[in-house]
Structure formats: structure tokens, C-alpha cells
Amino acid sequence: MMSQTKKLSIAFYYHMHQPVYQLTPDGDYLMPWVRLHAVKDYLDMVLWVEKFDNLKLNFDFVPVLLDALIDYENGAHDIHSKLTTTSVENLTHEDKIFILNNFFDSNYQTMILTNEEYHRLYKVILANGTSDTNIFSDQEYSDIMALFNLAWIDPSFKTSNRELKKLVKKGKNYTLQDRIEIIKIHREIISKIIPSVKKLIKKGKIEITTSAYYHPILPILLDYKGIRKNAPLDDEIASLKTDLDAKIQTKMALDRVEEIFGVRPKGIWPSEYCVSEKTLEMLSDLGIKWTISDEGILANSINFEFIHDFKGYLQDPYHLLKTYNYKTKNSDIKMIFRDSTIHSLISFEYSHHNPIATANDLYDRIKVIQSKILSSPDKDHILTIAMDGENCWENYLEDGNTFLKALYTLITEDKTLETVLISNYIEKTKEHKELKRIASGANFNRNLKLWINEPVKDLAWTYLKRARQDFSDFVKREPLNPHIEKARKELFICEGSDWFWWYGEPNYSGRDNIFDFLYRTHLKNIYKYFDLEYPDFLDEPLTNLSPSQPSNYPRALISPKIDGKDIINKENDWNNSGCIDIPDGPVLKESKLFEKIRFGNDKDNFYLKFHLNKYIKTSQTTLKHTYQMYIYMRKAGRKQALSPIRLINKSQNVSPIAMEKFHNEIQVSIRDDELRFMRLIKAIPGDMWVMENHKVIETAYDEVLDLKIPFDAIDIQEGETLEFLFINANFGMIDFYVPNEIVLSLTRPTIPVKK
């Protein structure tokens, strides 16, 4: 007889958030992402429950996003939409430069490549750059604006809306009236979001939660001093005194969501899954019934490490499939924890593959998890699939529609699986495990270091503390000032997580200067509401203190010993090297060869140190595989004797970086924990490659892989800049690029002539 399968509950939980993109409450939005994600994700993701009788979904809407959606519904503009509805004849030279630089901010594979005319216009940009506005006619500028705004609309609306269907079919030669109509359709889609959510809440098809109003990192606001316990004694921001702000922002969020939807949320999604003991105490005091965090936080909290096998399957998923009860001083609060592997697969990996195949892969993974609870003593088990609900879908063909349709079909047709509303599940089950402690941290690296403990981030916190102190001093002097609440709103905006995420290392948005300008402007607004002079330092961009690219660049020239040792200190000179981390997200553990790459140079040589994935070094199974890393290099500005990357893509989705050409390639291959071979290859005319003498490169492979590459061997002369990138590949097939969309660079120094 077949053993009876235990029912597994699944909580799909999507987080919807955008930061503040306005300089003032009634000003235009500087960036269009609220509007564009609204027409692509916010309504579409909710409406899936209408297509399946047995599908239930959970959504987290941050109040600042809801406010922006209401603004757009009422006629608000961003720079992009205002230009789109402007006659081409009235565009200035600066307007056209802006269009050239910003109206191709679309996913290349799924939004640009799939549209013949949009792709043709994009190739003109690639060939000519964005400094000459004469590369396009007025009609082409009109088409660029129309196609950009059409590309961001979810495919389902393009077939269901008759007028939109006509505009898509037109393809080119768009008029001003066409562009006005496109933005009008955007507003119509946005106007349906809140009413649709309200209707589906009443039907019991979705549950809505919220986050603190302006998306702050609650543990930091509640206890900055405790989090920075290793900070210097003279740290001027050791105490932010923002614990009350955290509570006010959270209560404001609950009140606002109740006002908009008519239902008070029972759950809170803490920004970036960041939790701590003080966070849970505060949420419990506010009457919150439950909250969520990440698998890694649970592991640290119960001292149980979740072991994943070669394919990412959990060896023992039991603890991750339970709800937890945490006792606070005055009450208690329930917790759920998401599966990190499934999140990474959907967010980063599945978009590169066939959507039907990946939906089946995820379904199979769910069934494997289900098979492992047969021996569980408990009746109830919940698998939490929680993730950003907006940012990954543009990487999928058809905005993820094929993938989601296939996945939801497989799950809803399986009678041993059920999708649930989280509050309903928590109220129904009596099998809550006791959680005696909660580890402080986030889903990233299980700590909070992506928002603090970095020079530029800490300077941004110092600015905030100064502004908050000045705000408090003013309120004490003039407690009845009519502008206090407006100034307080500006202060709360500046407590949001996004500013500190993008400042400094290691994250890079491509628009860091805009985030910096917004942050400093909102700090200035605090003073302006009180008719006070703001501090002069708020006029100085913090981004001037950050590197222009997403890596820690070398601090000085280096001439390290090539010994293959994993030691970084002042004696071996790697201490001053640049370093770029390779995240876990895009790939599973078994395919990532390196965890980080250090780089630098002296006057004669280019140095690389590859820190190997410890999973490979310690796993007896994975050592039998061949791992490959490719390094592509070129002299900046070189036009001759360049050849294309010759690796194989896994799908038709081609990254723009794949179209770049280079004049040297280095192949590295490791098998059975040995450096099997290394090749130096040179480009020749005709898009061809030829072998070079690789023995000019000094190598050492032990704990890490060290390379010493003479600049002369790769044709980089004094004063010339070397551009380079890395590709992780297996059997000649591309896994991912490092970095993902740009090249790194460093310059060979010029030797001064002695007189």
C-alpha cells in the first residue's frame, strides 16, 4: 500500500515597495518606478487569484507606495511621463539627452529584444552613444517614448484592452495623441489596483499586510547603539534616539492601510526581513499577531543549520515548515520563516530557463519537501514562499505569466497541497513551536551590515542624527509650530532603508546620484519647514565619497606574493586590493566557482586572487565536476582586433554585456581540486581567437587561486586603462557575469621620467 501523503500548506507572500521619489509632497516624481511597476506588477500579481478557484495569496503593501499610487491616479507625473506627453517639437536639447539616457531602462532580453523597432533604436544608441541628439529624428524620439512606456505594461493588459492592443500593433510612427493615450491607460490600470485589492480581501482570496510607513530598518531605529556594540566609544551616532520613531512609523502604517482598505493588518513584513528582540516587543505591543523573517535568522535563533544538498534541496525542512510563538513582556507574537532557496530560484535563476520546465522544477521541489514530513509528529506544516513581488518578473519572458500560470495550475490541481492566507493558517493551527530567542539580523548575510558599518553609510546616519537632534530642539522651543508634522514626515522619509542600502559599498543602483540628491533634499526640507538655515554639508553629495562602480576598488598599487594562500594583511599587500563579492542569489551553490575576487596592479602587472567557493572545497561530490572561469580583457577605447565572447548562452535571453568585444581571454579550469589548465588567448581580425603563451602568467593554486598577469602580455601600455570582466561558466555555457552589466577597470601607471 502507498503511504498517505500529509497535506502541505503553502503561503505565497509578495512584498510591494518603492521609496519616495519626490522632492516635495506636491512635486513631480524624479523616477518612474512606481508608475511602471504599477502597470506591470501591482494589479497583475493580485488578479491571479481570480483565475484559480483554489488559489489564495498574501501581499505586503508599504504605505508610501500606496500614497504614490493614489497620487498617480489623481494626475501626478514623473519626469518620464511628463516628457512622454510633451510635443516633440517642444523638447529641448537637454530633454533629448535625458531620453537617450533613460528611455531604454528596460530589460534587454524581454522588453527590448522582443520588439523589432525598439531594438533597432537601441542598437543606434549602442553604436553612437548618448551625447549626440541628432542620431534620431523627431519621429524616432516620439517612438522611443511610446515604446518605452508600452514595454512596461504587463502582457495580459495588452491583449485585454482594445485601445492598448491597437497601440501595440502600430509598432512605430506614434503621435503625441498616442503617447498621451498610453499614459492615460497607465492611469486607468493604476486606478484599478486599490479597488481590486479591497474586493479580493472581502472575498477571502488575499490577505494584506504592511511595513513601517517609509520602510525603515526597525532594529536599527530601535537600537542603533546595541547593533553597533563594537563601534568606537567616541562614535557620534552611537545613539540615534529613534526608537519612538520606529513605533510611530509602524502605527502610522497600520492606520493608513486600514483607512485605504477597510481592514487592519494582522501581520507586519519587517523591511528586508530585519528583526530583533526589540522589534518583536514593539510589534507585539502594537497588537500585531505575526511577522516574518528569513531561514538564516531562524537557523541562528534555534542553533540549527539548514543543510542543502548538491541541488539545493533541504536535508531536513521540518523546522522551516513550522510557525513559532515568541513570548514578549506583555503578550506574544507568532513568526513564520521563508525558504531561502526557493526565493533565490524564482528571483534570480528561473528567468534564464524555460518557464514550463522551471514551474515543474519548483513543483517537484515542493513535493520533495512534502515527502520529508511523512515522519513528522505534527499534522500542520506551512511552506513560506516570500519574495519581492515586483523586481524579478521583467527578467522573465511575458513578465512571468507563463511561469506563474503553470506553477499555480500544478499546485491548485494537487489535492495534497493548499495555498493559504497566513492569518487564517496561524489562527487554525495549534502546533506553534516556542521560540525562546530571536537572532538580530536580515536575510542578507544574517546581519545588518548592508545599512551600517560602512564609511559612507555611517556618514549618512550622522547627517540624519544631526537633523533629528535639530528637529527635536526646535519642537521643544516651538511645540505649537504648524509645520511640525510636515517636518516630521521629512524626517521619517530619511529613515527609510533605501538611502542607506545604495550609499557606499557594495550596492550600486546606476542612479545613486539621484538617491543621494533625494536624501539630502529631504533632510534640507526639515529645516526649511522651520525657516532655519540647513547645515552647509547637506550641499555636498555623499556619492562623491563612493566609487563609481559596484566594487571596492584598489586603495593603492599592490605587488603581492603569488602563493595561493587565503591570507589578507598588510604584509602580503592584498590588503589594498579591490574586491568584488559574488552573491549566492543568481546560482545554486554547486555552480559558483568563486565567492569573491580580489584585483589590483603595480606598474608592470595585473593581479587577481580568486577565493574559492568553500562549498566546492569541502564537498567530495562536487570535486568531480569541472569548473570554469573566463576573464575577458581589453584596452579602453580600442577599436581594432577585438573579438566577441564565444561562450554559449543557456537561452535566447542575451545580456547586453554579451555583445561587447575584447582582445584577450584567459580560461581557468579546476577539477578534482586541481588547477587542470589555464589558457591565454588573443583576438585576431575576423572575430577570431588564437592561443598565446600562457606561461608568461604566474599562477599559484592552493587555498585560493592567484594570478600575476604582465600588462605587456595583454597589450596594456603605460597610461592605458584595462577593462575586464569575469564569466562563471560550466562546459562552455554561461552561468553569470561578474559584474552583471558593466566592465571593471584600472589604469597602468606611467613611470615618471627621471631628470
Proportion of beta-strand residues: 15-25%
Helical content, roughly? 25-40%
As a whole number of angstroms, the C-alpha radius of gyration is 27 Å
Q: Which geometry do the CA atoms define?
A: globular
| Average of pLDDT | 89
Q: Give the number of DSSP strands.
A: 24
What is the CATH architecture descriptor of the largest domain? Answer: Alpha-Beta Barrel
Structural summary, described in words:
This protein starts with 7 loop residues before the first strand and ends in an 8-residue tail after the last strand. The model is unreliable at about 585-590 (pLDDT under 50). α1 (about 35-45) packs parallel to α11 (about 195-200), α2 packs across α10 and α7 (about 140-150) packs parallel to α10. It contains 25 helices and 24 strands. It folds into four domains: about 35-50 and about 75-195, no CATH class; about 210-435, Alpha-Beta Barrel (7-stranded beta/alpha barrel), CATH 3.20.110.20; about 455-545; about 575-745. The strands form five sheets. Strands 14, 17, 18, 19, 22, 23 and 24 form a seven-stranded antiparallel sheet that branches. It has about 750 residues and is of the alpha/beta class. The longest helix is centred in the middle third of the chain and has 23 residues, at about 455-475.
